[in-house]
């Protein structure tokens, strides 16, 4: 069973010149995906102009993984921690309600392209912790590279939630298969390029949830980058009513043209018509990835002090 979320269906907010796209939007009461998918609470994409800040996030417990696809992100929190996440780095933060966290594009000349994944907290998660590592392109090319996992395997970031996050950069025609254990589900997001999942064509910004299946297979139609999250199959939850100011004004999620100097995305123009045709016009929605909830419709470690 699949749950399809097209790029244009994401919530798009704009604050000054900063853009954010939310795959799951808690303000959409009628959307079965408003509360997330399985243990995945938030999946967002940010494009930040030079020097721009990221609006404060709602203060709630979570494990947050941030991926800087291009540019650099400067961070500081109310406990005195500060640092920077560079392009190609993944950072894991365990946060609590009492900590205020601020972020901004560290460059005064270049744009930053950021992806953020927030997981519902595990009972054993500490109140506050940071960990980040560089995962070079060479280590993610042609394979599903584990960037975060409960056991820290392969020198990946150490999650407390029972989830695994993988990243892959694919050449045209490359094919990947990810096996699903019983009681598990997957959310796959296309960072850039185009891939096919069975007979469904997915383009940049598209996401798909897969539940109650034995495996997930994806083939690149062109040079592509994907993020894949292997998640526990949790029952659906009610969407939180805390909505960050970064959501901004609700607009169509069609991206504005980006000047060549800001070509941080690096993907060829998307063939949306082909993507729509590839899906056969079919979609199935889910309130969560639990089967009963489905409804129709070398790395370098940088330790923080």
Topology (elements, then pairings):
Blueprint: E1 2-5, E2 11-15, E3 18-22, E4 40-48, E5 53-54, E6 62-70, E7 72-77, E8 82-86, E9 89-95, E10 101-105, E11 112-119, E12 129-134, H1 137-140, E13 145-149, E14 157-158, E15 164-170, E16 175-179, E17 184-192, E18 194-197, E19 200-203, E20 207-211, E21 215-220, E22 224-232, E23 249-251, H2 272-278, E24 300-302
Parallel strand pairs: 13-14
Antiparallel strand pairs: 1-20, 2-3, 2-23, 3-4, 4-11, 5-10, 6-9, 6-11, 7-8, 7-10, 9-12, 12-24, 13-15, 15-22, 16-21, 17-20, 17-22, 18-19, 18-21
Features:
2 helices; 9-stranded antiparallel β-sheet; mainly beta; 44% strand; 305 residues; Jelly Rolls; 7-stranded mixed β-sheet
Give the N-to-C terminal Cα separation: 44 Å
| Helix/strand order, N-terminal first | EEEEEEEEEEEEHEEEEEEEEEEEHE
CATH third-level topology: Jelly Rolls
The level of helicity is under 10%
Textual characterization of the structure:
This protein has 305 residues and is mainly β. It has one domain: Jelly Rolls, CATH 2.60.120. It has 2 helices and 24 strands. It has helices spanning 137-140, 272-278; strands at residues 2-5, 11-15, 18-22, 40-48, 53-54, 62-70, 72-77, 82-86, 89-95, 101-105, 112-119, 129-134, 145-149, 157-158, 164-170, 175-179, 184-192, 194-197, 200-203, 207-211, 215-220, 224-232, 249-251, 300-302. The strands form 4 sheets. A 9-stranded antiparallel beta sheet has the order 23-2-3-4-11-6-9-12-24, with no helix packed on it. It is globular.
């Amino acid at each position: 069973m699949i749950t399809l979320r097209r790029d244009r269906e994401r919530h798009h907010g704009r604050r000054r010149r900063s853009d954010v796209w939310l795959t799951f939007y808690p303000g959409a009461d009628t959307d079965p995906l408003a509360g997330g998918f399985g243990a995945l609470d938030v999946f967002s994409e940010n494009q930040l102009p030079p020097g721009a800040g990221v609006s404060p996030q709602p203060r709630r417990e979570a494990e947050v993984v941030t991926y800087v696809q291009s540019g650099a992100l400067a961070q500081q929190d109310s406990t005195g921690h500060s640092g920077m996440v560079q392009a190609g780095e993944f950072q894991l933060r365990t946060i609590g309600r009492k900590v205020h966290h601020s972020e901004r594009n560290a460059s005064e000349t270049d744009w930053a392209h950021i992806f953020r994944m927030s997981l519902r907290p595990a009972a054993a998660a500490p109140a506050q912790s940071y960990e980040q590592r560089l995962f070079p392109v060479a280590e993610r090319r042609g394979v599903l590279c584990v960037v975060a996992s409960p056991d820290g395997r392969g020198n990946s970031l150490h999650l407390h939630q029972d989830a695994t996050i993988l990243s892959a950069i694919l050449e045209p025609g490359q094919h990947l298969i990810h096996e699903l254990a019983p009681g598990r589900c997957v959310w796959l997001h296309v960072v850039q390029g185009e891939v096919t999942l069975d007979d469904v064509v997915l383009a940049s910004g598209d996401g798909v949830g897969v539940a109650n299946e034995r495996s997930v297979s994806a083939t690149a139609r062109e040079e592509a980058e994907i993020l894949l999250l292997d998640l526990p199959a949790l029952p659906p939850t009610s969407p939180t009513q805390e909505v960050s100011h970064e959501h901004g004004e609700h607009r169509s999620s069609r991206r504005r043209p980006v000047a060549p100097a800001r070509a941080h995305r690096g993907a060829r123009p998307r063939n949306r018509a082909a993507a729509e045709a590839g899906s056969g016009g079919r979609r199935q929605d889910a309130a969560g990835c639990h089967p009963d909830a489905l409804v129709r419709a070398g790395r370098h470690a940088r330790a923080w002090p």
